[in-house]
Amino acid sequence: MPHDTPPTWTPSDASPGEPRPAKDPREPRLAKDPGEPRPAEGPEEPRQLRRILRLFRPYRARLAVVGLLVCAASLVSVATPFLLKEILDTAIPQGRTGLLTLLALGMVLSAVVTSVFGVLQTLISTTVGQQVMHDLRTAVYGRLQRMSLAFFTRTRTGEVQSRIANDIGGMQATVTSTATSLVSNSTSVIATVVAMLALDWRLTVVSLLLLPLFVWISRRVGRERKKIATERQKQMAAMAATVTESLSVSGILLGRTMGRADSLTRSFADESAELVRLEVRSNMAGRWRMAVITIVMAAMPAVLYWSAGLTFQMGGPTVSIGTLVAFVSLQQGLFRPAVSLLSTGVQIQTSLALFQRIFEYLDLPVDITERDRPVSLERVKGEVRFEGVEFRYDPEGAPVLEGIDITVPAGGSLAVVGPTGSGKSTLSYLVPRLYDVTAGRVTLDGVDVRDLDFDTLARAVGVVSQETYLFHASVADNLRFAKPDATDEELHAAARAAQIHDHIAALPDGYDTVVGERGHRFSGGEKQRLAIARTILRDPPVLILDEATSALDTRTEHAVQRAIDALSADRTTLTIAHRLSTVRGADQIVVLDGGRAVERGTHEELLAGNGRYAALVRRDTLLEPAP
């Protein structure tokens, strides 16, 4: 977000703590906030299920192998009750030891084959499931990398992290085992039912009478758990956002200095308690109804024995002991996959809420995109033009910028000044396409920046902002982020140009020193000089300095300014200035007010005009601290 409207931080609020400018209309309008997805219900569910199945399409060959292994294992396991029937009805009554041995060995072999097939299917299906999760994580991360700056000014960092970590992590069991479980249990159920019909159709009818009721109960439980899962993931996202914000270095500093540590702890405890309540509800939802199904199915053997005995006493057709034992064995074999199928259905219903949250991010429209055939510039001279530029966050709102016509020749320098909220930072962000104009165009060497490929634009434009971001890594790694193949000599040269080499070299670990979270082991001026060294290493022909020294004291500013002067040499430079002392030597100074360029000229010309710029200089002089 432009520094003209700095964000506020509200760590204990349930709503995102982002700035509240008018929203960019091209950004997606999520349900209430990005952490509150719309649950897929009714006609949405079949479409969503088809989309989930498409995730497995690249791995259908391996899934076909899994299907064959599952079918083979199911068929082999169904043979065991028939072998048992022959043992009880033939081998033992007739004293046929050889047949008894073969049948017993057959039962052992069946168990061995089933186990081997099970291990192989688990290996393949788990590998496929993890690959699908990898694809989802990568797709979401890649999508977010392409989102415009406006999206991230409205979305809490913890919310984004929760989508990638908690939501995708919560789908692990579903993605890695559900497909195999469906195939395995469906095959087992079908094969078992066919075998039961082959043994005795009457007992089969008795066994399956309550199946439709069980299916209906499981669907109701699934819908209930899905609703709770949506609430649970939202709560997890809120808690993750609170942790990310309040336990960062900046968050700890703010909480301690404001005396809010206890308040933050209580707020976190409240969120954690709410998560406990949702977790308990999720685990207990429909538990009694599913327990009834388990009890009924476990009682079925007693019902079968009772039915067979009653039929025999009433003079009906008799069932042999072997057939009855084999049938009960099949029925018990049917119990496990049938319950598993019902549980899988419940799990799928629950996971739909997680998939919906992930698909919501994957469906975010990307408004800043490359052309189908973008222009690539081998050598960028650095001429920048703003031609009739207009920019609005909201098409129905007032323009942030309007009627901007500025030319900065290659190697020239432009300073943009004006009161807070005048659109200075927004103007500079149009050059690297952090935002796109809503009218007019911005050109680089005569080419509309929207026509350039992203690589050319990234190589051509470097940005040094007021808020320096450093990774929790070594100094060398932070510098090499701009140029991964940079040699140590290149790092040292860039650091010398940025007036920071001597300080780094004096550290115990030198360039291997870890900078800490967001660079908090270094002062503000040192971090700025590291950022400048990083930009020098990248060597962009166009440089944007977005109030790079506004947060520094006068002495530190002078040191950083010397580094900036080294960086700006022979480059096209756009400086967004708060302190006017830093822009007096600019080739051209533009004064923005209310999104319009109200004055332009050199420092001397604007002072002589005694207009807005002269008033700003007088104010700046009064505010300048005494040496």
TrEMBL record:
Membrane-spanning ranges: 63-84, 96-120, 189-217, 288-306
UniProt GO BP: oligopeptide export from mitochondrion
User: Which range is the signal sequence, renumbered to this chain?
Assistant: none
User: Which keywords belong to this entry?
Assistant: ATP-binding, Cell inner membrane, Cell membrane, Membrane, Nucleotide-binding, Transmembrane, Transmembrane helix, Transport
Q: Which domain of life is it from?
A: Bacteria
Keyword Transmembrane on entry: yes
Annotated GO CC locations: plasma membrane
Q: Which InterPro entries match?
A: AAA+_ATPase, ABC1_TM_dom, ABC1_TM_sf, ABC_transporter-like_ATP-bd, ABC_transporter-like_CS, P-loop_NTPase, Type_1_exporter
Please give the chief subcellular localization of this protein: membrane
- Supply the name of the protein: Multidrug ABC transporter ATP-binding protein
Molecular function (GO) terms listed? Answer: ABC-type oligopeptide transporter activity; ATP binding; ATP hydrolysis activity
